[in-house]
Amino acid sequence: MSTTEKIAEVARDILIHEGSEAVSMRRVAGIVGITPMAIYRHYPNRQALLQAVADATLRELAENWGARVAEGDWQARLIGLMHDFLDFALGSPHLYRFVMTDQHEQARHFPDDFKSGGSPAFERIVSIIEDGMAAGILRTDVPLEAALALTSATQGLVQLYLGGRIGLDELAFRDLCERNVRRILNGLSV
């Protein structure tokens, strides 16, 4: 593993366990075993390092998202994507917040970054929505906006859950999210 990769791995580990505010160039350099000045040969600043972590995380999500239910009927695949998302959000809440909700310079913005392929994981949702529309399962609509309607509801529930505002255990929370997605699908269905 290169020093650049090791730096990003250490930053990600800190971010996962403590949140983005705990990631400092000096701390990461110390853990990697390089001088604080040497880290700047690999990343020009903290924001660039955190962006590298975010980009790698989004690539990883895109590669693995949909693995739970790769085959099967349309709705099972969609619900599988929701559970894959919940695995990420509930399994790594600090990383989830950084990638999905924290404000930072390079954060993706709807709709432009999502239209241009800036969010590979979101593209999977848009694609399955397009498939549902083409198959006559969903009403014809703007796929990007229909995907946003579907995902933002789950993201909102995740925010409430991670904030301690929903008093359910994880399994009951997942069931709530699935029921909510099915409600939204009923509204989008033909």
Short description:
The chain is an all-alpha fold and 190 residues long.
**Helical/strand content category:** mainly alpha
Strand content: under 5%
Which quaternary structure do these chains form? single chain
Sequence stretches where pLDDT stays below 50 over 5 or more residues: none
Our Rg estimate from Cα atoms comes to 18 Å
Largest sheet: none
Count of beta strands = 0
Distance between the termini: 51 Å
Average residue-wise pLDDT: 89
The run of helices and strands is HHHHHHHHH
Question: What best-fitting shape do the alpha-carbon axes yield?
Answer: elongated
Work out the helicity level: 55-70%
User: Count of helical segments?
Assistant: 9
